[in-house]
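Database export, one record per block. Field names are fixed; values are copied verbatim from the stored entry.
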Amino acid sequence: MLPPDVRVARDAQDLLIECCVEFINLVSSESNDVCNKEDKRTIAPEHVLKALQVLGFGEYIEEVYAAYEQHKYETMQDTQRSVKWNSGAQMTEEEAAAEQQRMFAEARARMNGGVSVPQPEHPETDQRSPQS
């Protein structure tokens, strides 16, 4: 997420990782406390959001909730694709290669700033002619 011309020393990377781990532990612990106060046994997203508020990170709740909603949407799409792929329909080698390239592009976009890549509803009908 840093500009390409920015370099980070290895010890700074290690420190950032340790900070992230500590933050996750802090939020997890507070989420567990919130969960226990509600006599629940499973930490739910609303427990995490409440924990962020309690810990003084309320200004991030809207962004965290948006990320959660995006995750739910992507998970639902993945589930639908999985059901479609496992329903006995076979992809041709070309369709599988096109789908693989689409997934690579989507992953690259997420790594390069969270830009979403439009996805065709039916990848098997999105056949592009090879360029000569």
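Remark 1: The CA atoms of residues 1 and 111 lie 7 Å apart.
Remark 2: The first helix runs from residue 10 to 37.
End of record.
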